[in-house]
Description:
The protein has 7 helices and 5 strands, in the order αββααβαβαβαα.
Amino acid sequence: MDKFIQAAIEEARKGLAQGGIPIGSVLVRHGKIIGQGHNQRVQKGDPMAHAEINCLQQAGRIGSYKDAALYSTLMPCYLCAGAVVQFGIKLVVVGESKTFAGAEEFMKQHGVEVINFQSEECISMMKNFIAKNPDLWNEDIGK
């Protein structure tokens, strides 16, 4: 498994341990993690506290994002994909999109390369969470 996806998985586990939604993300630049975060919508009572947004906030202002890559355990939603496009991130690597298709085509249409591992670990983590928390999951993704 890619070490940066593994770091995103660790972030997802942190969120789950806090009673939140197990989605994690890391921002990588020049082979180093410069930001990391996890979904904290439940913990903070903030509908905008998605993993990728939290990760970008933790990275802080870095100037240009064109040479950065965003890793996430789950395909980014339109909110997070919008941040990817807005900041000019050109590479997004995801753990999986089977449990949530997200905004892959939107990102590709805006010149973002998307690599999808379809990791069994990421898939099972989300499937288990969704099975145990369907109302919370559906609230988060707007269904």
